[in-house]
Amino acid sequence: MLTIAQAKIFFGSIEENKTQQQERTSPFDGTVVSSAPVCDAEDTIKALQIAKNATKTAASTPLSQRILWLEDVAVKLAAQKEDFALMLAKEVAKPITFSRIEVERCVETIRLTAMELASLHGETIPTDIMPSGKKTLAYFRREPVGVVACITPFNFPLNLVAHKIAPALGAGNTVVLKPTPEAPMVAYMFAKLFVESEYAVKDALSVVYGDAEVGSTLVQSDIPRVISFTGSVPVGNIITKQAGIKKVSLELGGNAATYIDTSADLDVSAERCAFGAFYNSGQVCISLQRIYVNEAVYDNFAKLMAEETQKLKVGSPYEEDTFLGPLIDEESQKRANGWIASAIDEGAKALTGGTQGENIFLPTVMADVTDEMKIICEEVFAPIVSLVKVPSYEVAIEKMNNSPYGLQFSIFTNDLKLTQRFIDDAQCGGVVINDIPTLRFDVQPYGGSKLSGVGREGPKWALEEFTEVKSIVIC
Fold it and tell me: Which of these is catalytic: 108, 251, 457, 465?
């Protein structure tokens, strides 16, 4: 474990110790793996004021320096990949292989942001286009908003931080970050790379640890001009009501679905669906939760899906070949057990899993699931996937769209016309053809419709979220 003396708080460019500390225990074996300061409203206000005072310096920092800053962090993070991966495995029990992948993606996210900064520009506007106008030199440009408050979740506690703070800092803003309480040391190690870089903008980044009190203080303050949040719908709803007049970017929940057409390659479909349903123990906003299968291939696909699921290794996050580790906490395990029990009572059956193995919830494929069951209506955030038999594509897409969520959907088909229809019909932020809805490339726009959120992530689109347009006319 890292010692308590190493768990500090960043107030801008200054590290401070706090007397009160909170220990973080491993979801896998319950051992203490790290500790973090316990922050309060006073700490949060201090961090916000430091960020506010640094806005002019940050905005006036040359773009070349900000790009070098991001590139420096990316290089140092890549060099420390194993240290970061091990801490991810310790704090959130992410299997070590996937922890390494998250670090690698984080490096790429930072580098993509540095590349996109070169395109952060405006354009000229022809003000004499209408008879009421006249010829001028008119244009717009993008400027930093000032202070950005970032609130991040536990499931990707490194890369999702990068998706917020790299574009925010790169655009010339200052940032106050509230990382997930479940991975405080990962956030500390990451922030340290930014703060200690030779290209760092002084006081541009602060980190405050905590939960509701810290979050509410950040959201309700008049200092931040943007609140960027990734998390649950209930918390997103609270943030929307508390924020007041400022930009709010919300990446919320999902209930990702796919359709298995009669023309699909069933072997490939089953293999990919098993990955998409159980990757990160199902703790992904775009984790595959609903699989609508054409009745003509339902039995065959269900058999293949069960077989692929049983191939996945469940166990210690420290072993190289482990695919699935424990859920983040005991409450999540109890909730998952409740989902299964409720579905079975309503007539569904478990083809695999459905039980708790030691301290790990086993990957579960539920069959004979119907629209009325709670397990298919809400986000489960656990290694559970439901199979639903449908007579046609038309019925499948209607059921897929009949959800309060609209993050990502997919389809497995070799019918080009059906692909084109699906792209038009799917009511969501992203569609995937012949792969799982869990597929995400960090260079793409990412976000949803309905209760899945407002705004988009991905470096190019995040830079737009964290800047404001200024219009200029020279007569």
Answer: 251
